[in-house]
């Protein structure tokens, strides 16, 4: 137990970084997800193609490989970001592909009649998306989006591989000093569980709040 | 108000509209009837470009139908459409369904749009349902809300595609009554329907379609009393038996 209580500062720091990273990347991934899902259903073939390529590329590469590539390859062409920023960009981009697919599935649950009615009153494509299609499509997939956000939380631990000291890396560091892996990683694991529980609580609340009356 | 010349429409190899000509004057009410699959819905949907015509010209109030984009959206705002399946926006209250177009398309201030919407809902008899969601309304009430939504755009023409076909029989009249009163007020309307009572009461002209063509066109009295073509006679004998 001392292995945990003696290093509260380091754990706290790691936890804050993990939460920070999760919040920032969730926002980024949601924005990207909406944009890419929109591209994938838009009437312009070229843009649809861009959306498809994005999803295919990012879903078919391991996140760790993407992280390493981004952090170590970009500086060779003169582009450098702080480590935290790099990791946040890569994780957002990666989870954005998954969210885009979930959102697209949501959009597909919205009947064609809704889009036709929206167009029939003179809404443009982007207006029908914004006021009619997305509000209903997103509501249909709050639950799966929550699951992706939990996966995102877990995936933030990969940022450790490129040098970000988030919760897992903090635990690792403490373990190097204390050599008590069971206590240290159980503690970190509990923290992840609590965060995941929090996300699913938020998801559940959003789902109730935005339920469509049927 | 509406002028269609030489309209052709194909779905793949299927030739659905074959050289359709139709002119509807301002204030005129035209009822389109015909057997299932004759192309009535497709004609209606071509008029606001929910379907893209294969050939021919369509003019609304002297303006040819624009291709995709903002201009098309603006034209659609002037052409109201009421669907068989209502298609109210499920996540918005009835009031918000009605105000969406005026606020976002016509840029009417919210308070004003709300007042106008309430007046329209009152006029179609569902003012008390303004804050309900579509799923909480009966079919007849939903269709009346959909009519209010279309009217809120102050359209030049209203298209109805079998507006009462999805309704339980006891709700048909509440919707038809609204339509009859619109007709009486001089709204230009194109109505696909099998409600012959409505055609007799409100139509200036009945157009009979068969196999993608307009086969016959005349006043309701002429048409129902003495259809000129065998096809129309045959069709009428079938639906009037019920
Ligand atoms: N999206 C589509 N793709 C392929 N074929 C279609 C499509 N929509 C309609 N059709 C076909 O076009 C023909 C005309 O259809 P339409 O819906 O216009 O007929 P309708 O007169 O409205 O019939 P109903 O009285 O059954 O509504 C039919 O043969 C139909 O199967
Ligand atoms: Mg039809």
UniProtKB/TrEMBL annotation, chain A:
**Which is an annotated Pfam family here?**
BPD_transp_1
Organism (species)? Micromonospora globbae
SUPFAM superfamilies the record matches:
MetI-like
GO BP, one annotated term: amino acid transport
Q: Name one GO cellular component term.
A: ATP-binding cassette (ABC) transporter complex
PROSITE patterns given for it? ABC_TM1 (PS50928)
Keyword Transmembrane appears in the UniProt entry? yes
The portions of this protein that span the membrane are 21-41, 61-84, 140-162, 182-199
Subcellular compartments: Cell membrane
Chief location bin? membrane
**GO molecular function terms attached to this record:** transmembrane transporter activity
Membrane topology type:
Multi-pass membrane protein
Q: Which residues form the ABC transmembrane type-1 domain?
A: 15-203
Alphabetical keyword list: Amino-acid transport, Cell membrane, Membrane, Transmembrane, Transmembrane helix, Transport
What family does this belong to?
A: Belongs to the binding-protein-dependent transport system permease family. HisMQ subfamily.
Task: Specify the superkingdom.
Answer: Bacteria
Q: What is this protein called?
A: Amino acid ABC transporter permease
Gene3D superfamilies membership: MetI-like
From TrEMBL, chain B:
Residue ranges of the ABC transporter domain?
2-236
What domain of life does the UniProt record list for this protein's source?
A: Bacteria
Q: Where the protein is mainly located, per its record?
A: membrane
**Which of UniProt's keywords are assigned here?**
Amino-acid transport, ATP-binding, Cell membrane, Membrane, Nucleotide-binding, Transport
> Which Enzyme Commission number(s) are listed?
7.4.2.1
A GO CC term? Answer: plasma membrane
Please list the reactions this protein catalyses.
Answer: a polar amino acid(out) + ATP + H2O = a polar amino acid(in) + ADP + phosphate + H(+)
Name the membrane topology term: Peripheral membrane protein
UniProt GO MF annotations: ATP binding; ATP hydrolysis activity; ATPase-coupled polar amino acid-transporter activity
Where found in the cell? Cell membrane
List the Pfam families.
ABC_tran
Similarity comment: Belongs to the ABC transporter superfamily.
Q: What is this protein called?
A: ABC-type polar-amino-acid transporter
């Amino acid at each position: 137990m001392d292995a945990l209580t003696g290093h509260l500062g380091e754990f706290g720091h790691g936890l804050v970084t993990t939460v920070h990273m999760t919040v920032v990347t969730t926002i980024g991934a949601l924005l990207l997800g909406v944009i890419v899902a929109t591209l994938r259903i838009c009437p312009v073939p070229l843009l649809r193609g861009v959306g498809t390529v994005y999803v295919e590329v990012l879903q078919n590469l391991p996140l760790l490989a993407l992280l390493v590539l981004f952090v170590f390859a970009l500086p060779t062409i003169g582009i450098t970001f702080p480590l935290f920023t790099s990791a946040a960009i890569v994780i957002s981009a990666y989870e954005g592909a998954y969210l885009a697919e979930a959102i697209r599935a949501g959009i597909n649950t919205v009947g064609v009649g809704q889009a036709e009615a929206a167009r029939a009153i003179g809404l443009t494509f982007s207006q029908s998306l914004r006021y009619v299609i997305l509000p209903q499509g997103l509501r249909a997939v709050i639950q799966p989006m929550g699951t992706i956000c939990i996966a995102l939380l877990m995936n933030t631990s990969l940022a450790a591989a490129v040098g970000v000291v988030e919760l897992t890396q903090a635990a690792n560091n403490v373990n190097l000093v204390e050599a008590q892996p069971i206590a240290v990683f159980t503690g970190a694991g509990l923290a992840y569980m609590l965060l995941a529980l929090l996300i699913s609580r938020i998801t559940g609340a959003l789902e109730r709040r935005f339920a469509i009356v049927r | 108000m509406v002028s269609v010349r030489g309209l052709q429409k194909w779905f793949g190899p299927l030739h659905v509209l074959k050289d359709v000509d139709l002119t509807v004057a301002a204030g005129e009410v035209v009822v389109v009837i015909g057997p299932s699959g004759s192309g009535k819905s497709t004609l209606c949907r071509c008029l606001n470009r929910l379907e893209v015509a294969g050939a021919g010209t369509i003019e609304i109030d002297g303006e040819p139908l624009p291709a995709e984009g903002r201009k098309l959206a603006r034209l659609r705002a002037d052409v109201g459409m009421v669907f068989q399946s209502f298609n109210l926006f499920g996540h918005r209250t009835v009031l918000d369904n009605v105000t969406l177009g005026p606020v976002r398309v016509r840029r009417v201030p919210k308070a004003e749009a709300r007042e106008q919407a309430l007046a329209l809902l009152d006029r179609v008899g569902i003012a008390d349902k303004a804050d309900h969601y579509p799923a909480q309304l009966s079919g007849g009430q939903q269709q009346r809300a959909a009519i209010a939504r279309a009217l809120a755009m102050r359209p030049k023409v209203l298209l109805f595609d079998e507006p009462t076909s999805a309704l339980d029989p006891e709700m048909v009249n509440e919707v038809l009554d609204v339509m009859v009163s619109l007709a009486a007020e001089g709204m230009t309307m194109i109505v696909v329907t099998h409600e012959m009572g409505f055609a007799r009461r409100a139509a200036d002209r009945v157009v009979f379609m068969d196999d993608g063509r307009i086969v016959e066109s005349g006043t309701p009295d002429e048409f129902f009393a003495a259809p000129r073509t065998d096809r129309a006679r045959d069709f009428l004998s079938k639906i009037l038996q019920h």
